[in-house]
TrEMBL record:
Protein name: CUTA protein
Quaternary state and interactors: Homotrimer.
Domain of life from the UniProt record: Eukaryota
Record Pfam families: CutA1
Residues of the signal peptide: 1-16
Family: Belongs to the CutA family.
Taxonomic placement: Eukaryota, Metazoa, Chordata, Craniata, Vertebrata
InterPro entries per the UniProt record, alphabetical: Ion_tolerance_CutA (IPR004323), N-reg_PII-like_a/b (IPR011322), N-reg_PII/ATP_PRibTrfase_C (IPR015867)
Gene transcribed to yield this protein: Cuta
Keyword Signal: yes
UniProt xrefs under Gene3D superfamilies: 3.30.70.120
Gene Ontology MF: a single term: copper ion binding
Keyword annotations from UniProtKB, A to Z: Signal
GO biological process, one term: response to metal ion
Length: 135
């Protein structure tokens, strides 16, 4: 019984938080995330952004202008310019989004980093939720 209770705890906690959110209208911290994806140029960035949105893996993708990047690659210090995508999505979609981006991204190891959204404009967070289908 104790083991079963421990195994069920994450699921029961999640259900309790969802119920609390539905009743009170409060936001559950971490329900949504921002994903950072780097791209070689603006055209690749636009193509990946459109592909993500076509698959309904995000509500919005911002394409930020060029930035300089310094990094080690295969033992050598490299310098390049990159375009950064800011992807707003459900946290539950991060795995699927990451797999999809890796399958279409030209980089051998693309940067795909996510950070949970702690708080924000409730109406904007609701819009993300309405725009990205549940699992």
């Amino acid at each position: 019984v104790v083991i079963l209770s421990l195994l069920m705890y994450p699921m029961l906690r999640s259900l309790a938080l969802q119920l609390h959110s539905a009743i009170t209208g409060s936001y559950i911290s971490g329900t949504h995330s921002i994903v950072f994806i780097n791209c070689l140029n603006e055209q690749i960035a636009k193509d990946i952004a459109r592909a993500i949105l076509d698959k309904k893996l995000a509500a919005c993708v911002n394409i930020l202008p060029k930035s300089s990047a310094l990094y080690f690659w295969k033992g050598e210090l490299e310098e390049s310019t990159e375009i950064l995508l800011l992807v707003k999505t459900r946290t539950s979609k991060i795995g699927e989004l990451s797999n999809y981006v890796r399958s279409i991204h030209p980089f051998e190891i693309p940067e795909i980093i996510s950070l949970p959204i702690d708080q924000g404009n409730p109406l904007y967070l609701k819009w993300i939720e309405e725009s990205v289908p549940r699992d």
